[in-house]
Amino acid sequence: MFKRSIAGSYHKVSVKHLDTYLDEFEWRFNNRKKTYILRDILLKQVAAPNLECKRLTAKIQEPAA
């Protein structure tokens, strides 16, 4: 599976960075069944305050010209 992953994702693999490729492959394999993993990672990175539904769906008032 690793060889197929390398052929499908990268053009060339160097021995110097082989550990990094293996780490990434291992992480992807271990998290393959987590449907929302990327969304959860992004939300943790952003650390934004909660956005209430009424604020999200509120109509935007355009400035008077």
Largest sheet: none
Strand content: under 5%
Average residue pLDDT? 78
Count of beta strands: 0
CA radius of gyration is 21 Å
End-to-end separation in angstroms reads 61 Å
Number of distinct helices? 4
Name the shape in a single word. elongated
Q: Uncertain runs with pLDDT below 50, 5 residues or more?
A: none
Please identify the structural class as seen in this structure: mainly alpha
**What is the string of helix and strand elements?**
HHHH
Share in helix: 40-55%
Outline:
The chain is an all-alpha fold and 65 residues long.
Features:
65 residues; mainly alpha; 0% strand; elongated
Would you write up a description of this structure?
The protein is elongated. It has helices at 2-9, 18-30, 37-46, 53-56. 54% of the residues lie in helices and 0% in strands. With 65 residues, the chain is mostly helical. The protein has a domain at 2-46.
Strand-helix topology:
Blueprint: H1 2-9, H2 18-30, H3 37-46, H4 53-56
